Amino acid sequence: MLSNLIRSPTTVRTLAKPVAITTAKLSTTQLINKSTYRTPNFDDVLKEDRNMDKSRVFSYFMVGSMGLLSSAGAKSTVETFLSSMSASADVLAMAKVEVSLANIPVGKNVVVKWQGKPVFIRHRTAHEIQEANEVDMSSLKDPQTDADRVQNPEWLIMLGICTHLGCVPIGESGDFGGWFCPCHGSHYDISGRIRKGPAPLNLEIPQYEFSEDKVIVG
Amino acid sequence: MSFASIYKVLFKRNSIFVGTVFVGAFLFQTEFDSAITKWYENRNKGKLWKDVKATIGSANNGAEDDDE
């Protein structure tokens, strides 16, 4: 019989005819009347002079508190998203700085901040350029020609950090008419080369490029 | 202030209700922030940098001269 069932499943036909559902729905009152549950009597806990204003104020207060909390949450969520859009520290570390050279008169220093470090820009006079080129290489501690240190001899652009211990040298001072580091007395010439004092190297030259009357450091 | 007058002042006009909620949210945020910070700093007393810095400062008095 089992094999017969398996072999011919078509024999399992719908034997039962659809039976009409005859259970009628009961109305609520009928249900209550039919209910066997006993309803307790709440009369002794219900207050006689129930303050409707109090409960209303309470409800509104709860609604308002909910709104307050959710709006504070929404505000801080939006703030988080907005702050994530602002430049992060690694982007700022790659930042370049653009300086307009038109405003710098001949023979003046300008200090700009680039990646947290001071950058000296000097508009050199013709006399200063000549002076920088006339220096004898053999007298230098860190020999470097002036042409190696500038792209355009009129503009000397270098990092204003003493190569000794990282102070910021003072411009237009020192024995060689350039920069002087007040911390341990290093003298730099008008090309930023170390001439006297404890500093071992010339002032560092950052990467920069000229575009029209601007210089982009970085 | 009876409950009826609270209702009249704060909740009757929806604009005032919503306005109160938003202003309250701003105040709540700063209050909450400072309260949490206070709690956190109290809980981690002695481990924070400002506490540690004081002990380091007293350990080597004036011996730091990193700016040369």
UniProtKB/TrEMBL annotation, chain A:
Q: Which PROSITE patterns does the UniProt record give? A: RIESKE
Q: Does the keyword Translocase apply?
A: yes
UniProt subcellular location: Mitochondrion inner membrane
Q: Indicate the principal place this protein occupies in or around the cell.
A: mitochondrion
Q: Name one GO cellular component term.
A: mitochondrial inner membrane
Membrane topology term? Single-pass membrane protein
Q: Mind listing the UniProt keywords for this protein, alphabetically?
A: 2Fe-2S, Disulfide bond, Electron transport, Iron, Iron-sulfur, Membrane, Metal-binding, Mitochondrion, Mitochondrion inner membrane, Respiratory chain, Transit peptide, Translocase, Transmembrane, Transmembrane helix, Transport
Q: What is this protein called?
A: Cytochrome b-c1 complex subunit Rieske, mitochondrial
Q: Which organism is it from?
A: Maudiozyma saulgeensis
UniProtKB/TrEMBL annotation, chain B:
- Know the name of this protein? Complex III subunit 9
Subunit (UniProt): Component of the ubiquinol-cytochrome c oxidoreductase (cytochrome b-c1 complex, complex III, CIII), a multisubunit enzyme composed of 3 respiratory subunits cytochrome b, cytochrome c1 and Rieske protein, 2 core protein subunits, and additional low-molecular weight protein subunits.
Q: Which family does it belong to?
A: Belongs to the UQCR10/QCR9 family.
Biological process (GO), any one:
mitochondrial electron transport, ubiquinol to cytochrome c
Q: Which UniProt keywords apply?
A: Electron transport, Membrane, Mitochondrion, Mitochondrion inner membrane, Respiratory chain, Transmembrane, Transmembrane helix, Transport
Kindly indicate whether the keyword Chaperone belongs to this entry.
Answer: no
Which SUPFAM superfamilies does UniProt cross-reference here? Subunit X (non-heme 7 kDa protein) of cytochrome bc1 complex (Ubiquinol-cytochrome c reductase) (SSF81514)
